[in-house]
Amino acid sequence: MLCPVRCSRRTHGSNTAAQSPKEPNPLTSEPTDAPSIAFVVLWLGAFPRWFPATLRSFEANCNIDFYFFSDNLPTDLPPNIPPNCHFPFMNKTQFETLASRKFGKPIRLRAGYKLCDWRPALGHLFEELLRPYAFWGWCDIDTIWGQPRKWLTPEVLNAYDVFSPWAAHPVLGPFTVLRNNEVLRFAYKLVPNLWEYLQHPAYEGLDEWIKHPGFNFPDTLQKLVNAGLLRQWPGLGVMAFNDCVLHRDAVHQNDVGNNFFCMAESTKVIWNADGLHVKSGNPQQDTEIMYYHFQLSKDSVKKTYHPQVLEQPAMTMSVQGFEVTV
Predict the structure, then answer these.
(1) Where are the beta strands (DSSP E) in the chain?
(2) Is the separation of the CB atoms in 290 and 146 below 8 Å?
């Protein structure tokens, strides 16, 4: 499911409007009826130093649209924005106004990371923008993507409603795709104690399952799945890696039956326009993955990032960060 041509980039500041394209998938080798997908990211403050590398991997997914709602002006954005990456301006006050109108209660945001608690509500908050899309979702930006549509084929998307790369949970913070229907647009309102958690100034982990078991969005959706109201994708093989090093020289599976693996110290993740591949030195462990989440090695990634990364035909990473040839 690769783009037949490279997405042509736009110069910086020229791709900031929050407008849904009439044809969300104009550059794709997939059938014309392939379900369309849009990811929404909420961000306050400067984007991280490595962000151009993340955008480069998003650019190769030109059959997916990305909307970054942030308070960055066009002049604050990286140059050469990919055409499938949109940067509508939204500051703290504008988000509060939108959320208050949609939720029907006064919303006050006291910290930027609190925006993650609003991820389950993105389908409602931006329902007008997302109307042309068959699916919507969210993702982290401390990631490098491969080609998720190699897994999320039209047949798979038509057969299921909720998608994450971890079979044990219907949604996951770094990568979640949800069918764009009324049930999933408003399912966040079914989270127990929702208003209490949204009022709390700190991040409460509503988009994850760890902090408040039973009182979060993944567990709420799991109840709907168990009741037969939603169809959860079971996943297929190893789909994602993160940088929690549990073994020095071996790839480690997080939990039995899951599709999410930790890296070894010696493991390398190599990106090119064809996808994202894990190289461990053991051909039996080498595999292609949907994305790499460098959540614990962000400092190393920040220190080792250099603009030259964008000029190399392949980007190579490990838990030590980028490997750059300058």
Answers:
(1) 37-43, 65-70, 85-86, 135-139, 143-145, 162-163, 175-179, 240-247, 252-253, 260-264, 268-272, 275-279, 287-289, 291-293, 315-318, 321-323
(2) yes
In 273-293, which positions are buried (b, 16+ CB within 10 angstroms) versus exposed (e)?
eebbbbbbeeeeeebbbbbbb
Q: What is the distance of C-alpha 315 from the center of its chain?
A: 19
The DSSP-derived string for 166-177 is -TT-S--TTEEE
In whole angstroms, what is the distance from residue 26 CA to residue 19 CA? 15
Q: What is the pLDDT along the chain (326 residues), one digit of tens a residue?
A: 333 334 555 544 445 545 444 444 333 344 446 899 999 999 999 999 999 999 999 999 999 999 999 999 999 999 999 999 999 999 999 999 999 999 999 999 999 999 999 999 999 999 999 999 999 999 999 999 999 999 999 999 999 999 998 878 899 899 999 999 999 999 999 999 999 999 999 999 999 887 888 899 999 999 999 999 999 999 876 677 777 644 334 444 444 344 455 666 778 999 999 999 988 777 766 789 999 999 889 999 999 999 999 999 999 999 899 998 76
pTM of the model: 0.88
Amino acid code (one letter) for 257: G
How many residues in total does the chain contain?
A: 326
